[in-house]
What does this fold into?
Amino acid sequence: MSDLALDQAFSIGMGETQVRFPTTLDRLIHLRALPNLGGLLGRGLTYIATHAEERHYEPGDLVYRPEEPVVAAHFIVEGRIRVEQEGLHLLDGVPPFAIGFFPVIARSTVGQKAVAVEPTVTLELSQADLFEVFEDDFGFAETGFRQQSRQLAQMQRELEARGLLTRTEPEERPYPAERLDLVERLELTRRGPFAEVNLEPLVQLARHAEELRLEPGEVLWEEGEASGFGAAIAHGVVECTSGERSFRMGPGSNLGLIESIGLLPRSYRAVAETRVVALEQRSEALLDVLQDNPAMTMGLLTFLSKVLLDLSVRLARAKENDADA
It folds into this structure.
């Protein structure tokens, strides 16, 4: 039986509203059919099915009010929801996707306006329940930050193509003749999403990272290769090029980690422009540490959500300027 047939078979009438998912099993069947959730077999998906609330909206109904923070995510079952922030059109949410994940996970205080464009049915999950799922089911959290990483990589490419992603000129630092000690390794590791993480898991990452030393002209990776690690640069400059991109990364940069987390192929060729010293951060090692440290996992999800929210607004503004030009 098709998903639609299942939906119709399970539907019951309640007043003037057609209830699509009268039981937890009905919601679970629907959630299992979603492309981003179908592979999850853990307790997280069952928790969502148990705690999600079915919501119905008529055209013009507000799902989110712009003067209020977003405090729930909505899995869209049918219909369409237009989402705006700061007066900018961010997206049109349609099945089988969801809205609200970025602001909810980021705990954003900036409101969004979300309005039903046509008759719409969603499964609503509160912020508290969403965090409970992430903390209790690492498989669900892993799916989340891998999807976030893929979206971040795509947005970065779009902004680069528009000339809207600026990068600072790499700074010069003394060449470290000796191998990096633990303090220097921690300095490279405790950045970005892990800037406020407890030291213990970062020490694990720092100790297991392999030190890389490259001479000018040595290739770190080729465009199109599978990505399995990122490189936290301690010294030197790496030149990154593809058919449509060209940029340079230096000390303090974490090169290629987002693609690695997202299981994406390399989108550019990376070559040492100078002598380079870096830490190779394997995605498998990061995954092991994240699984043992829920607070670190939530830190990564929150960091990526904040960046994605910011880039979403920047892209929306750029597209609006294109339309006005």
